TrEMBL record:
This is 3-oxoacyl-[acyl-carrier protein] reductase. The keyword Oxidoreductase applies. InterPro entries: KR_dom (IPR057326), NAD(P)-bd_dom_sf (IPR036291), Sc_DH/Rdtase_CS (IPR020904), SDR (IPR050259), SDR_fam (IPR002347). Belongs to the short-chain dehydrogenases/reductases (SDR) family. It holds the Pfam family adh_short_C2. One of its GO terms (biological process) is monocarboxylic acid metabolic process. Keywords: NADP, Oxidoreductase. It comes from Murinocardiopsis flavida. PROSITE patterns: ADH_SHORT (PS00061). The lineage of its organism: Bacteria, Bacillati, Actinomycetota, Actinomycetes, Streptosporangiales. One of its GO terms (molecular function) is oxidoreductase activity. Residues 6-184 form the Ketoreductase domain.
Length: 252
């Protein structure tokens, strides 16, 4: 059954998982706001969607800034229509062992992932709850289970799971679902940066990761976009408050 066309916002959609998700939601027939820090970076994804026959706009905003979030969400409502789908995907890493982790490493990561998801969700739910339909998907991570050098990131990604469950509890009666997708290793600029940090070629880093993944490959951004397309679709209306690990195998 084709999806009812909606207005979707995908944060951090200039590249990686966010860009793949924006393209996928546009292919489902949704109008997509491609939001990223710099509008110019978001433009490439939006232009690609438009070239493929979809509808998209680029929006520049820092998701951790309350004023910019408010302006961005209202701008989407003015230019595309009332947002009904929100994917909180924007993310950064500032990896360091705890004894070397700076206050700024901590605040930046918690600020983008957790405060960003909070600010975006609070702004978007106003439209969703008054329209009686909405889908929120938050990006968690397998690192929520703990990962060396990522005290800040794993705290943020575990926080995303509790945040998601609370949104599901509060917003369900308004027709709004909230779920988290927790990717394992996905080949993007983020994992490329991790390879650089540990002094490995990206290909070697990916091959080493693939060897310990049951399906014997690392993930692609499209693997996550496919899962998000399901969770944001009509058919997922009874799925809420869940954390879905998309990691090529089970995780503890
Ligand atoms: P990515 O390639 O680094 O892309 C992240 C995007 O978020 C970038 O375009 C970045 O913009 C944007 N962004 C950063 N801070 C922002 C802010 N304050 N406001 C708006 N946009 C901001 O990352 P990815 O690998 O696609 O990851 C996407 C999401 O999946 C993240 O939440 C990440 O934690 C999660 N995840 C990824 C993996 C993986 O293996 N790749 C695994 C688990 C979870 P700039 O380029 O301007 O910084």
């Amino acid at each position: 059954m084709p999806e009812t066309p909606r207005v979707a916002i995908v944060t951090g959609a200039a590249r990686g998982i966010g860009a793949a998700t924006a393209r996928r939601l546009a292919a489902e027939g949704h109008s997509v706001a491609v939001l990223d820090l710099a509008e110019a970076d978001a433009n490439a994804t939006a232009e690609q969607i438009t070239a493929d026959g979809g509808t998209a706009i680029a929006v520049g905003a820092d998701v951790s800034d309350a004023g910019q979030v408010r302006t961005a969400v209202d701008q989407v409502a003015d230019r595309l229509g009332r947002p009904a789908i929100l994917v909180n995907n924007a993310g950064v890493i500032r990896d360091n062992m705890l004894f070397k982790m700076s206050d700024d490493d901590w605040d930046t990561v918690l600020g983008v992932h957790l405060r960003g998801a909070f600010l975006m969700s609070r702004a978007a739910q106003e439209y969703m709850t008054s329209d009686g339909w909405g889908r929120i998907v938050n990006l968690s991570s397998s690192s929520a289970l703990g990962n060396r050098g990522q005290a800040n990131y794993s705290a943020a990604k575990a926080g995303m799971q509790g945040f998601t469950k609370t949104l599901a509890v509060e917003l369900g009666k308004f027709g709004v679902t909230a779920n988290a997708v927790a990717p394992g290793f996905i080949a993007t600029d983020m994992t490329r940066a991790t390879a650089e940090r540990v002094g490995m070629e990206f290909e070697d880093f990916k091959n080493a990761a693939a060897a310990s993944i049951p399906v014997r490959r690392v993930g692609r951004p499209e693997d996550i976009a496919n899962t998000i397309a399901f969770l944001t679709g009509e058919a997922a209306g009874f799925v809420s408050g869940q954390v879905i690990y998309v990691a090529g195998g089970p995780l503890d």
